[in-house]
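Bench log, entry 3. Co-assembly request; chain sequences pasted below exactly as received.
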Amino acid sequence: MQSFHGKSVYKGIAMGSILIWKKNNVQIKRLKIEDAEAEVSRVGVAVTESVRQLQALYDKALKEVGESSAAIFEVHQMLLEDEDYLDAVHNMIRAEHVNAEYAVAVTGDNFAGMFADMDDDYMRARAADVRDISDRLARNLAGRGETGFDFANPVIVVADDLSPSETVQMDKGKILGFVTVHGSTNSHTAILARMMNIPALVGVPVDLENLEDGTLAIVDGYQGQVVFEPSGEACRKAETRMEKEREQLWLLQTLKGKENITLDGHKINIYANIGNIGDVGYVLENDAGGIGLFRSEFLYLGRNDFPTEEEQFQAYRQVLLNMAGKKVIIRTLDIGADKQVEYFNFGKEDNPAMGYRAIRICLKQPDIFKTQLRALLRAAVFGNLSVMYPMITSVEEVRAVWGIVAEVHGELESLDIPHKVPEQGIMVETPAAVMVSDELARLVDFFSIGTNDLTQYTLAIDRQNERLDDFYNPHHPAILRMIQMVVVNAHAHGKWVGICGELGSDLELTERFVRMGVDELSVAPGMVLSLRKIVREMKVGK
Amino acid sequence: MKEFEHVVADSMGIHARPAGMLAKEAKKYGSKVFIRKDEKRVEATKLMAIMGLGVKCGQKVGVEVSGPDEDAAYAGMKKFFEENL
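Structure output for the full assembly:
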């Protein structure tokens, strides 16, 4: 038995024999050719054939995984017909009298290198697309045609990396899971695996040379683990879990469209947490009632400068429109601590978790804050927006926030720009906020309890420190009493309370939270139906 | 020569797909169409070159059109940018 860990792309379990996928990396040799023009026309023929194959892949993907995932093959067709790319291939053949295969391989490397050097994650990932089309072209030049994926029985595909065209060519019914050594969770393979609901792990440090086709393996997308040659005991366990998973999935689907209501008629809202516009699809797919936490950090991370008001406005507006009237709670910038951004120039802190972060940055550097607020107030016109502020510790901070919101509101009024002041609440994630929650409740429209930070600050435990695992009790009575206290204080002032931290999706606590009077739970999209099930099967009692 | 400026509103910037559509659109005209970003200037019919500009949401690009069907190309490109980017 041998096990490896990687990043999970799709949560699920698969068991079966493995198929090691190796690219037919035929070494491309540099050959001297006499007739350059004949070589150039061979390229033309191969391009036509490649475009035809890509059209077939596009049609296949369109049927199986939908338009948005199929679009990549349309892009591949256009890349293949790119003038600069083909000019470079032709020029090399003519100037150096080399064979077409060699010219394509070198040109492909050069163009892929250009994308790999760009300062943008999305564009860097396009290097793989350029390699994919160059491989295809070289294959067609050599007369090898399409790569074959004929497996008799369903398998777990283990590969160094998979290109989008390799992934989509595989017969869905024959794939149990994917394990790749390289590839990111944002790669096309990952996206396709998610669409196809296939357990998949990327970034698994396994040595393909030491593996054999047909070896039994278990892919566990929940733990991000793959086990080769598992013991009989491990197989039985996996089988039980797979059986349960199938049953569970089927049962949960029947809960779509139903209310989150207890047997004795108590209703609660179940919303979803997301961190990207692209996640909105999962929110709707899992029938969440709204978005309980939309982390706005994605707009600030992975770039070289602050996002503009217009950029933010477009992003917020798009989410509101896509959610079509359902509630969307956007949390203002929560950066600092473990989320560092270079262009902010924060400098190093000895204790970043207790440092310059979140609302503290916004109050100290109001320009950054006001840009975001202007974008939010403008977007509020387009749907059911709520805004919440992170890391609040005092009444004074909330008053300061209200002052800045009022300024922004005044500016938009005087410029006659359409806008609306949305519902506004705060994150309760410091023990200080809990202790003064009676006073805070007067000022705000709602509370959302961030249990991750609240637990870390209350128990004085750094969650990144593995040595403290024995001391960490997420169900510590101190935390549960704090949550109860916040609920009582909020309700005394007619305000509602949600939980958006990890504890919200702890199924052992769902009944308890409902009984405490928590009004909303916000969890990962995939957890929504599991929570709904518990709520619908419980009673609040007296 | 005619030119206009456009601020890209698509949240992904000029990513692969709209870049491909842009190249297709530019090929319809006899005029030369160039896209400018900062000091870089590329021909709009060249997909990889456009992608190489790495234009992100909120950034400004300049579009230059010159040639025999300048007016039609100008109108067509302007409409394309407004509708797709």
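The domain at 2-84 of chain B is CATH 3.30.1340.10 (Histidine-containing Protein; Chain: A;). The mean pLDDT of chain B is 89.
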